[in-house]
């Protein structure tokens, strides 16, 4: 499907998240329920759900509901589109643009549920069904954007935009609606439109296949350890979790896999270097060979994107995408990446020399390789700052962290959270909360899903099952938001104890969820996180800053056994260690941005070696020795199946914004109500209703500067 949003017709449910590495298999009720459905008992066609806040009744969902509901949604949307086209009245903002925005509600409802569960709770049947549903939606989406009569009405309104006395939000809706037609082929010849249909259908299937291959390759690998000597260096909690994983898999000993709560600690603590290398190679060769090989899929995706872009009159895919971003063009993206590269590379080189020297001083008479980096870096950090993940974990018990993260929204914006067990959920581990505003009014529903499962994609993300908007009756429809993560599971003897990185990941995704929950726009396609991709990370990354503040941590970080608050000296160590290896981490992120731009600035079809291309594309940001067999491109979900294509740079751009924005809180007080209210009113509530730079300058008073980021990282 193409990457448009026309009214409520959504090609892809927006999935906003981190690039982090991503249990026991517990299938959703839909995956477990193979009862056949006819239209009379199809859950999507129920007029009323009878659930709190109209939340989706996951407990009634059957796998057989999806396809008939998609087909019915398409049929009804076709009727709505035809009614707009056949309207004898002259095209107006209301009878064309708003009518289009409000059309397709049934199809949108099915897509929200299906694509969210395809990410968080999939199974083989859902994967197969997605390959059937996706082409139907792509064809329908194309039927809308390539409808000449419909486009003529949209164009007629657009050409009158300066005489219509529209509000800023209405003007933005008009502009985005017109742009969505333009960038998806509405102005092409009939021959061009047919080609666009063919290519967009092909691309939708390719991106689905890519994501499925990554998940299947991740689930296929298990490292089974049977000799306890090979566990040397690993914390007891990690060993216990690995033993539990082995039992679940019907194996003896201990199992480590490629989900982050398993992979990350092993790479940090395992003394057995050969096993670290084995696990590293398994992780970094995912989907690069065998049954789930994505190498050809990568070529097909980038070539199809290129062909679509050139069909649209662009030189490359990045040109097509970036005209609708804050960056505007690839020159500005490369300018940002290169400025950061120049600023951080000297620091990165010094950090690598320091870790190498430390390793050598501790008996490592060899050149540090990527599978050694986490191990020796962690030991060096512990020696320099007397701090490590296992020292901090006892203070970040998940239930306490939930209280602290929710409490951050309370202190800043007055939001409160109340668990509601009457809200149906899609998995027994998922919790649902009523969210109330500072005046006590209902604001949103929040779903939380914390732990890895075989049916869940890796990483962490925020998405939604219902987006905020004002309906045709004037009712402010409140959103149903979901945050999904892959955190360390509890064991038989320990609760879920998070690393500091997991804490910041939680806060990051919660920042996205606040953006969705406090949304207050008229139109769904402009609400919450429906903003320019290179603006969407600002609310999430800015919120991470609080994780380093004593005033905040004191409110919830207590030892899970003793109840003792986290010591002040430990918080100070967290702050001092915040910039440990910041140069290396920044260059790693820049390497991803360069790789993304490399793939999406090609101007001729690619049929070369994927590894060779990757090596050259990100060469300037590589710091550690390059492992010949390792391959990022075959597992880079963010850019090949997750919506960040020609947009991965936005994480670094958002760091510039978040450091600049947080500097206001630092100067006024981290819980200053006037600053928080202004950020909520001018940025969070507005969604995509105005240009992001207009919103940011309204909050900040000026354009962002790179200096606060450089100062925060100790570069300047």
How many H/I helices?
28
> Going across the major beta sheet, what is the strand order?
3-9-12-8-7-6
Q: Which sheet architecture does the biggest sheet show?
A: 6 strands, mixed
The average pLDDT is 93
Low-confidence spans = 1-12, 19-29
Helix content: 40-55%
Please report which band the strand proportion falls in: under 5%, 5-15%, 15-25%, 25-35%, 35-45% or over 45%: 5-15%
| Radius of gyration, CA atoms, in whole angstroms | 25 Å
Indicate the structural class.
Answer: alpha+beta
Q: How many β-strand runs? A: 12
Shape: globular
- Distance, first to last CA: 45 Å
Written description of the protein model:
The chain has 716 residues and is an alpha+beta fold. Helices cover 51% and strands 7% of the residues. It contains 28 helices and twelve strands. The strands form four sheets. Strands 3-9-12-8-7-6 form a six-stranded mixed β-sheet, sandwiched between helices. The protein has a two-stranded antiparallel sheet with strand order 1-2. The chain has a two-stranded antiparallel sheet with strand order 4-5. The model is unreliable at 1-12 and 19-29 (pLDDT under 50).
């Amino acid at each position: 499907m193409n990457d448009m949003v026309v009214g409520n017709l959504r090609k892809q449910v927006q999935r906003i998240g981190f690039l982090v590495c991503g249990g026991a298999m517990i299938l959703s009720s839909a995956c477990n329920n193979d009862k056949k459905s006819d239209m009379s008992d199809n859950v999507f066609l129920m007029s009323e759900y009878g659930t709190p806040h109209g939340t989706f009744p996951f407990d009634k969902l059957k796998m057989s509901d999806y396809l008939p509901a998609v087909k019915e949604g398409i049929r009804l949307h076709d009727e709505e589109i035809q009614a707009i086209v056949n309207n004898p009245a002259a095209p107006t903002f209301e009878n064309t643009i708003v009518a289009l925005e409000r059309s397709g509600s049934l199809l949108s409802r099915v897509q929200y549920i299906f694509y969210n569960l395809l990410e968080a709770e999939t199974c083989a049947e859902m994967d197969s069904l997605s390959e059937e549903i996706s082409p139907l939606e792509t064809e329908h989406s194309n039927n809308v954007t390539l409808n000449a009569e419909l486009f003529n009405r949209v164009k007629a309104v657009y050409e009158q935009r300066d005489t219509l006395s529209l509000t800023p939000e209405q003007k933005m809706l008009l502009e985005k609606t017109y742009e969505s037609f333009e960038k998806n082929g509405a102005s092409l010849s009939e021959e061009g439109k047919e080609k666009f249909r063919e290519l967009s259908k092909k691309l939708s299937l390719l991106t689905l296949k890519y994501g499925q291959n990554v998940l299947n390759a991740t689930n296929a690998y298990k490292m089974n350890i049977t000799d306890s000597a090979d566990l040397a260096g690993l914390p007891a909690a990690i060993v216990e979790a690995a033993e539990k994983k082995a039992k679940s898999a019907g194996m003896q000993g201990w199992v480590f896999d490629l989900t982050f709560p398993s992979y990350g600690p092993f790479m940090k603590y395992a003394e057995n270097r050969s096993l670290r290398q084995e696990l590293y190679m398994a992780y970094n060769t995912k989907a690069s060979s065998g049954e789930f090989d994505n190498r050809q899929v990568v070529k097909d995706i980038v070539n199809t994107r290129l062909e679509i872009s050139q069909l649209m009159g662009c030189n490359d895919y990045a040109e097509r995408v970036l005209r609708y971003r804050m960056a505007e063009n690839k020159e500005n993206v490369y300018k940002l990446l290169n400025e950061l590269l120049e600023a951080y590379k000297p620091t990165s080189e010094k950090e690598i020399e320091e870790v190498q020297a430390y390793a050598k001083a501790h008996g490592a008479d060899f050149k540090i390789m990527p599978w050694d980096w986490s191990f020796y870096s962690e030991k060096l950090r512990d020696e320099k700052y007397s701090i490590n993940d296992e020292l901090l974990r006892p203070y970040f018990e998940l239930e306490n962290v939930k209280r602290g993260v929710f409490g951050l929204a309370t202190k800043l914006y007055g939001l409160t959270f109340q668990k509601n067990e009457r809200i149906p959920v899609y998995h027994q581990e998922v919790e649902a909360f009523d969210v109330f505003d500072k005046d006590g009014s209902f604001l949103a529903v929040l779903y939380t899903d914390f732990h890895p499962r075989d049916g869940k994609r890796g990483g962490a993300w925020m998405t939604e099952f219902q987006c905020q908007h004002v309906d045709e009756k004037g009712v402010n429809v409140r959103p149903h938001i979901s945050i999904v993560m892959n955190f360390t599971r509890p064991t038989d003897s320990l609760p879920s104890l998070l690393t500091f990185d997991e804490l910041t990941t939680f806060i990051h995704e919660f920042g996205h969820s606040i953006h969705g929950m406090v949304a207050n726009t008229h139109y769904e396609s402009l609400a919450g996180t429906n903003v320019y991709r290179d603006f969407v990370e600002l609310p999430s990354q800015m919120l991470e800053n609080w994780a380093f503040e004593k005033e905040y941590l004191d409110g919830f970080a207590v030892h899970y056994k003793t109840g003792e608050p986290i010591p002040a000296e430990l918080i100070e160590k967290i702050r001092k260690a915040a910039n440990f290896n910041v140069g290396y981490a920044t260059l790693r992120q820049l390497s991803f941005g360069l790789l993304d731009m490399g793939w999406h600035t090609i101007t001729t079809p690619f049929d070369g070696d994927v590894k060779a291309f990757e090596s050259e594309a990100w060469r300037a940001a590589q710091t550690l020795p390059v492992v010949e067999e390792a391959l990022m491109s075959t597992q880079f979900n963010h850019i090949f199946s997750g919506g960040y294509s020609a947009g991965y740079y936005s994480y670094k751009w958002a760091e510039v914004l978040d450091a600049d924005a947080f500097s206001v809180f630092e100067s006024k007080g981290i819980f200053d109500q006037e600053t928080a209210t202004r950020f909520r009113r001018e940025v969070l509530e507005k969604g995509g209703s105005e240009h992001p730079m207009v919103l940011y300058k309204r909050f900040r008073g000026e354009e962002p500067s790179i200096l606060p980021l450089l100062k925060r990282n100790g570069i300047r």
